[in-house]
Every structure is written in structure tokens, then in C-alpha cells.
UniProtKB/TrEMBL annotation:
It holds the Pfam family 2-Hacid_dh. Gene3D superfamilies: NAD(P)-binding Rossmann-like Domain (3.40.50.720). InterPro entries: D-isomer_2_OHA_DH_cat_dom (IPR006139), D-isomer_DH_CS (IPR029753), D-isomer_DH_CS1 (IPR029752), D-isomer_DH_NAD-bd (IPR006140), D-LDH-like (IPR058205), NAD(P)-bd_dom_sf (IPR036291). This is 2-hydroxyacid dehydrogenase. Belongs to the D-isomer specific 2-hydroxyacid dehydrogenase family. Signal peptide: none annotated. Keywords: NAD, Oxidoreductase. Residues 112-298 form the D-isomer specific 2-hydroxyacid dehydrogenase NAD-binding domain. Residues 10-329 form the D-isomer specific 2-hydroxyacid dehydrogenase catalytic domain.
Amino acid sequence: MVVEILAFGVQADERPLIERAFRGHGDIRCLDVFLNLDTAPITAGHEIISTSVNADLGVGVLEILAAGGTRMVAQRSTGFNNVDLAAAGRLGLTVARVSSYSPYSVAEFAWALTMAVNRRIVRASTRTRDFDFRLDGLMGRDLHGRTAGVLGTGKIGEAFARIAHGFGMRLLGWDVTENPALRDLGMTYVPKERLLAESDLVSLHVPLMPETRHLIDARALKAMRDDAILVNSSRGGLVDTAALVGELRAGRFTGVGLDVYEAEAGLFFLDKSLEPIADDMLARLVTFPNVLVTSHQAYYTEDAVTQIVGATLENVLDYRAGRRSENVLVPRS
């Protein structure tokens, strides 16, 4: 009997990659809707489902999955802060994630945000579309010789730092574990407060956990230089958005590039252009001329998505064979 796998939150560009990878390994049905309390009932009868980073995998959804016969959740992302792991274990659900994929996809996009806000690319593009070719308000700064502060120096943070080194920047790092390769590159590890105070560019590359939520809070923001650039391509909950808006209203920061937002669930990956935005904080944030917000697309390269899909397939095959890999967050009971 062919087992149908249900995949939620599948983007149009992602669908052919998923269908091609799973060909010969079972029937996979791709849905563009996200898994939440409203959509969870359609999982009934599906032993295996796959979810995206913005899926709701809280206890309420997990109970519906378990009651409907689901036994395995294969999440197509590295982060798993959206999953109630304790509830999944109690309900007998196996949960797996993608532990790694191309670090260059996120690191390069973080640099795209950096350059865009530093050199006012969006404003310049908008002007030229209107045949306004003035340079007023478009002055940026050389990054060569300035300081890049990297919070989180794992694979993505290392890739980001290597690009910064290529620009000729001084490197400061902060992490619970130092990366020897970056020390060899010339990075100096310092306390977070010193990194924030001395950096012209601060980029976040740490996972979202209880201890890192609002890592960049009001106190951290005030410690940063008034003309600094802040980039977050990791997880929205790392930044206290209300505190950030307060600092922006005070005229601080050369630029802020955000690919993630702490209340992005229910917004990002969806077309909300014809609806009123009820999120006042996001509506305020996007009005600042020195802020660029994108919708969690840093990972979205053909290379990275192909790796994510491949790892998801391996997770499903491991589950079927009773194997356990480093990707398993909650093992098969």
C-alpha cells in the first residue's frame, strides 16, 4: 500500500523539489496552507506529515495529530522553537528536523540586507523608477576598516564573518563556545556588552531558546552605537521589537535589516496585501526609512532548499526503517 505523506506550508518554488525528491519513496501531497489548529484535522489518517518553520506544533495541534493517527512529524527547518517537544513525547509522536543546510544562503542574505540598508538601495531603486536621480539622502559608509560584531559563531556566523573579513572589517564575536577557525581568522571574542558598544555592524546568528529570547532588548539596543547597523536573519524573537521601535523613533541606527519578526506566524509566507494589518508594531516598523523587512527568505536558495528536502526525505526513511539520526528531536516510542 502506498503511504501518503502530507506536507504543509509548501512554497511554489519548493514544491517541484519536494515531489522530485520523494518520487519512488511514497506519495506526497503538498499543501500551501500552514499547520495550525484550523488545519490540523485534515491530517487524520496520515501517519507522516511534514511541516514548515511557521507551523503551530503546540500541544493542541499535537493532540489532534495523535488522535488522527499521525506518528511522525518531519519539520523542514533547523529551528524547532515552535514544537512542544514534551507534549510530542507524551503523545508518542516522533519529531525530526533538518539539523543543517547551506550556511551560505543565510549568511549571504544577511549581507544583502547589510548592504541594502547601508547604501540605501531600496530608496534609490524606488526613486529611479520615478526618474528621480538625485543622490540626496543616499550616502552610505565604507565598511572596510569598520567593526563587525557577530553574535553566534556557528556555521552561519562563520560564513558571515568570513565575508566581513573579505570586506576588511575588524571582527568581534560572542558565543558560548568559541570557533577556532574564526580565532585564526582574527576574530576577538568579547562579552556581549563590549561587542554591542564597539561594533558598526551587529549580525545575529544564534538559535531562539528561552535564554536567548530578546537577546537584543532595550538595554542591549541602548548599548549599541547610534550609527550602527543591526541585522537579524536568525529568529524574530531574538529582538524586542517594541524596544527597537522606540530606539528608531529616537532617530537611532544607520540601518536595520530584518528577515524575521517575532510575531511573523500568520503573516510571513502569506499574501496580506488586500487586508488591513492588525499588527501595529509591524506596521510601524516598516514605515522607518532606515528599516528593511523581508519575509523569512534568507534560507530560500535552490541549494539550501534542495538540502532541506533531501534531509527531510532521509528523516522519513529513517523513521520507516526504525533508525535514529542526529536530526531526531523526539525518538520513536
